[in-house]
Design brief:
5-stranded antiparallel sheet, transcription regulation, HTH_AraC, alpha+beta, DNA-binding, Homeodomain-like_sf, Jelly Rolls, 4-stranded antiparallel sheet, 300 residues
Length: 300
């Protein structure tokens, strides 16, 4: 089995709004795309054809056919397709990374512990033949729906096992361990996402993460490439963008709704982040054709 078969399978099934295999995502783009910002859920993204670029804070990650990216946390990223054409579209597959599934696998095996030291939250690796093979067999299930309930969980475990024993094994292990630094910082990220309009007190975030202030700052920055305040700002701006696209609220109302005290500050920071003033950006986005999948799927 090879990338050739993976490309064929993705091209055959990618037009479906969702796949029948829970957690499996497919993507296709027929030309390079402009940067798109969003919050990515934990996901494994494998490129079968073409190339992509992901930006997290000040870090840039390029990955192409035969390479994969692991996103272990809820991270605000900007991504775009850099290599695609109607003749050779970008084709990708993704799998949601479930902490419970990884934890279960760790408990049942002799996999080495992840340790508590943080590592960069994203990294690109070459996909092994075994990993590609497992993805091929998982996507084949879309042609045999009756097999999905029995075989899809087994193939998910195989894919996770390949990751645990690959270059990013340490990072993947941390997703499944309740006491890893990654999981501890993840608690703070989830709180910010759920309370992005609230006043942010870094001392409270450090406490809920089980760390003192200085180590919390260091680990947060190492894993997210930004400070807690910068993370909250990106969450606010992306929520504002969604509101502007889907409602008739004016710019000032949206800015106040996502936590800004000043309409002018909101407009200034929105333009700096997205490249256009809020009103013009929302009008442009409303004219674009609807997209099939969310941020996690777009990474694949």
């Amino acid at each position: 089995m090879s990338l050739d078969e993976l490309r064929t399978l993705i091209a055959r099934h990618v037009d479906r709004p969702t796949t029948a295999v829970d957690g499996l995502m497919l993507s296709a783009e027929y030309r390079p795309t402009p940067p798109r910002a969003g919050v990515a859920d934990p996901v494994l993204a494998l490129v079968a054809q073409g190339a992509k670029r992901i930006v997290l804070g000040d870090r840039v990650y390029d990955y192409r056919a035969g390479q994969y990216l692991v996103v272990p946390l809820d991270l605000p990223v900007t991504g775009h397709v850099t290599e695609a054409s109607p003749e050779r579209p970008e084709l990708g597959a993704g799998l949601a990374l479930r902490p419970a599934a990884i934890a279960s696998l760790l408990l049942e095996t002799d996999a080495a512990p992840a340790g508590r030291a943080p590592s960069p939250a994203l990294a690109v690796s070459d996909a092994s033949a075994d990993l590609v093979d497992a993805f091929v067999r998982m996507i084949r299930l879309l042609d045999r729906p009756a097999d999905i309930p029995v075989l899809a969980p087994m193939l998910e475990r195989e894919i996770l096992w390949r990751l645990l024993n690959g270059e990013q094994g340490t990072l993947v292990r941390q997703i499944g361990l309740a006491d890893s630094r990654l999981t501890q910082i993840g608690r703070a990220l989830r709180w910010i996402r759920d309370h992005y309009t609230d006043v942010l007190r870094v001392e409270d975030l450090a406490r809920m993460s089980g760390m003192s202030l200085s180590p919390f700052h260091r680990h947060f920055r190492a894993l997210t490439a930004m400070t807690p305040v910068q993370y909250q700002k990106q969450i606010r701006l992306q929520e504002a963008r969604l509101r502007l696209m889907s409602s008739t609220e004016d710019v000032a109302t949206v800015g106040f709704a996502v936590g800004y005290d000043s309409a002018s500050q909101f407009s200034r920071e929105y333009r700096r982040h997205f490249g256009l003033p809020p009103g013009r950006d929302a009008a442009r986005l409303r004219t674009e054709p609807p997209r099939r999948a969310g941020t996690a799927a777009h990474l694949a």
